[in-house]
Each structure stands twice: as structure tokens, then as C-alpha cells.
Amino acid sequence: MTSTATHLTLNRTGDKQPISGFGLWKVPKESAADTVVNVLKAGYRLLDNAADYGNEKEVGDGIVRAIKEGVVKREEIFVTSKLWNTNHAKEHVRPAFERTLKDLQCDYLDLYLIHFPISLKYVDPAVRYPPEWYYDGKGPNCTLENITIRETWEAMEELVDSGLVKNIGISNFNAALIQDLLKYARIKPAVLQIEHHPYLVQQDLIDYVQKNDIAVTGYSSFGAQSYIELGVDHAIKCPPLVQHDVITAISKKHNVTPAQVLLRWATQRNIAVIPKSNNPERLASNRDVFSFNLSADEIKSISALENGHRFNDPGFFFDIPIYA
Length: 324
Description:
The chain is α/β, with parallel strands linked by helices. The chain has one domain (about 5-310): TIM Barrel. Helix content is about 35%, strand content about 15%. The strands form two sheets. Strands 3-4-5-6-7-8-9-10 form an eight-stranded parallel sheet. A two-stranded antiparallel ribbon has the order 1-2. Helix 1 runs parallel beside helix 2, helix 2 (about 55-70) crosses helix 3 (about 90-105) and helix 3 (about 90-105) packs across helix 4 (about 150-160). The relative contact order is 0.14. The model has no long low-confidence stretch (mean pLDDT about 95).
């Protein structure tokens, strides 16, 4: 199956999530506002952010500037953020959300996700914000907390009831966790966000959630690039996808960039993408994923590059093997 859709229709609300968006992970604070204005001027309408990225206040400054300058109206932007692991307790979900809402300077969010299916000990924002993967701030360490996904999800549902967020979803969940969540969810997750590239296709998971009317957003579309500086060993050793013979041959055939091929491989399979770039030319080309179509054989050949390489796994750094 291939798709030419430019949006994904979300369950329950019918809201339209753009299939091509911009991810704000690792966008520096000092340039975040300008970046947001520039990407909105370039035509992007999906902004994917998270409290853990540490730049939501600056992203909010950019949104406000873009609206004041007449680049967009608020209702034309699809704004996503995520709940961090230290705020999974029922009493912490809404304050965490309200901090994000205030920082982003929005009256509502279009989508709010549970960032990871991991509950960590609460860290007071007055002590450290964002808390990241630390408890005491002295070194990389995690202190697990005994909080169920059900407790967290029910607090997420209350955010919908309050009118503060239109859609809620999950990120980095596997099929077993989703199956369990669907048994008690009053509001079905609208979106699952996962690491997704030809080295980690996860087609069985994608098929399962799409059959359950849950939209999929893929991050790290270009593979290892964002993880090399984090010291992920197999990311450093992994052949870059944008230089892979299969990808470059297809890009030459269609007269597009290898990055465009990787993004089109996802969007043609109804998976939203959220790449980022500070380069104006790449900003434009990364958004141009509708002017060409890959053949069924090309999609198959790209998917055949699967080798199980996952680059975003807390288990690399801490004893939390959520994908084991």
C-alpha cells in the first residue's frame, strides 16, 4: 500500500496531523525561536517538541513571533509535546503539562504524548528543569518509581476532558504495552511515535497500531546521524543511510536527495516524519516529499535494509531495557 496523503486523520477528533513536520530535538535554545519562524515560513505546519528538549520557552517565542508577523495563525499549526518520565504520577501530569503550555505560550496543544513507558522518581522543577535522565544531578542515574501506565494515561485523559489538549498519544511503546493500554483506555491513543528508518522498520508494530486506527509518526528518519555525538557505539560504526548504495541509486533515478527518498519511503506508507535542519535548502527539500512516488519494488528494497539497529534506547545507558 502506498499513500499520497499530506495529512493523517486522527481517531476520535478527526484532526488532521501534517504528515511532514519539523522536529525540535537538539535545536539550541539560542536559535530555537529563529528556527521556528524560519520553518513556518518554509511551509512546515507540524512542530514536534518535548519538555525534555529544554527549549520549549524559546520555541514558544518563535510561535508567538510567527503569529504576530502574519506567517501563520495558531489554528494552522499542529503543536506536539511530550510528558517526561519523572512526571508520570497522577498529581504531576497536569502541572507538567501546564508548564509546557505556558512555555510554548499556547492556549492548547494539538497532541500530547507520554514520552517513554518509564516511570522515574519525581524531580521538582525548582531543583532542575528539565530533569533529563538524572535524579540527583550529579551523574547519569535513574531511580524507578512504582507508577502504572494506567495511572498516567487516566491523568492524560483528564487533560482532554479539560479542553487543554485535543489529542493524546504515546511514544516508544511496544505492541504488548499498547495492547494492554487499549483494554482500559477511555480515550484511545491518537498517535504512536517511534524510531523509524530502514535499519529499524518495525513493520509488525506499525501494522498493528494502524489496524487499531492509531496514526504513526517516525523519528530519526535518517538513522544514526543524531546519535553519533551521544556516543552510541553502533551509531558511530553504522554506514550512513544517506550514503547507502540502495538509497543513493533511488535518489539519482528520481533526481531527489537521499534524505527525500528516506522521508518519502515513510510518508508513502502513511507514516508522518519530523526531520530537522538549519539549512534553508534542506528545509525546503525535506518538506518536498510529495512531488515524486517510489515504486512498490523501491519501497521493498529500502525496507529490506532492516538490521535491527535501534539508536534511541535507554538501555544503552541505564538498566532499563524497555525494548528487550
